Amino acid sequence: MSSFKPFRMTYREACKQAIRDALLADARCFVMGEDVGKYGGCYAVTKGLLEEFGPARIVDTPLAEVGFVGAGVGAALAGLRPIVEIMTCNFSLLALDQIMNNAATIPHMSGGQFAVPLVIRMATGAGRQLAAQHSHSLEGWYAHIPGLKVLVPGTVEDARHMLAAALADPNPVLIFEHIVLYNAEDELDPAVTTVDIEHARVRRQGKDVSLVTYGNSLPKCLAAAQQLASEGIEAEVIDLRVLRPLDTATVIESLTRTHRCVIVDEGWKSGSISAEIAARLAEDALYELDAPVRRVCAREVPVPYAEHMETASLPQVPDIVAAVRSVVKAG
């Protein structure tokens, strides 16, 4: 039995320690992005790393995403292991050409002669009144692109260990960290030193309905499941963790136990990852369903600034509970 005891850590600190470990483990690894150095990162994830590793490895960049993401692609092609931070996923659209037309396609267009071992971290999601240009959830868009791997750590453990697996991947990996989760705190098991970046995880067992989700919607689904349990409804909570490649098998396995499914996604419903999951269930597991698939997603509006409107625009625990009740009743 291990003598090491679980200890508490914030999601923010987990991200930082993952980066620090990467820098210590591999001299080819460096960080670059807006305000990652002297300021310590927009969300304080890289605070203190400049003093420890110096400006050659913690590189402040201009406000020019297409430029510094392109530099990251070039560095990866040259054999380095860049960790590029984009302040918010909204700003990643300025670098979409570099991400899609270069990072994701060069390994394929070169017939496998060139790898692009690039990791791009970015904040995603709403809930902190940062208004529409800083609050959207675009990870589902990137999950549409072959050649990318898309990770969405929803727990402190995944935030702590996904980066190492991402850096070991020869192809580009995007990590979406929800802004509300940075202050979240949880116990870490010191015996866990790695996580896979291929599979979903069952975070709560249940028999009546499958709640499929990721990111900051995970704690909301767990809270909803707790409330539903008091009503005699046992919800199984699936944390997708990886949006590309999407682990459909784990979702279908859960559905064969529960025969009902509610998908919770902070992205917009139209053309979303929730739509993709629902379509796959219709294609591959239709006869396991005892009720229609329900989706709980963000309202189809730019995320509002006003706190009460922002809250109303996002999936919340009462919305999830209501959706589950509707499918259990329908079944």
Number of domains: 2
- The coarse overall form would be globular
Reported for the largest beta sheet, the result is:
7 strands, mixed
Beta-strand content bin: 15-25%
**How many strand segments?**
14
Order of H and E elements: EHEHEHEHHEHEHEEEEHEEHEHEHH
Under CATH at level 1, the class of the largest domain stands as: Alpha Beta
Describe the structure.
With 331 residues, the chain is of the alpha/beta class. The strands form three sheets. It has a seven-stranded mixed sheet with strand order 3-2-4-5-7-6-12, sandwiched between helices. The protein has a five-stranded mixed sheet with strand order 9-11-10-13-14, sandwiched between helices. The chain has a two-stranded antiparallel sheet with strand order 1-8. It has helices at residues 11-25, 49-53, 65-77, 96-103, 106-109, 139-142, 156-168, 217-229, 248-258, 273-284, 307-313, 317-330, and strands spanning 7-10, 29-33, 58-60, 81-86, 119-124, 149-151, 173-178, 185-188, 201-204, 209-213, 235-239, 242-244, 261-268, 294-298. Helices cover 36% and strands 20% of the residues. It folds into two domains: 7-188, Thiamin diphosphate (ThDP)-binding fold, Pyr/PP domains (Rossmann fold, 3-Layer(aba) Sandwich); 201-330, Rossmann fold (3-Layer(aba) Sandwich).
In summary, what is this structure?
This protein is an alpha/beta fold and 331 residues long. It contains twelve helices and 14 strands.
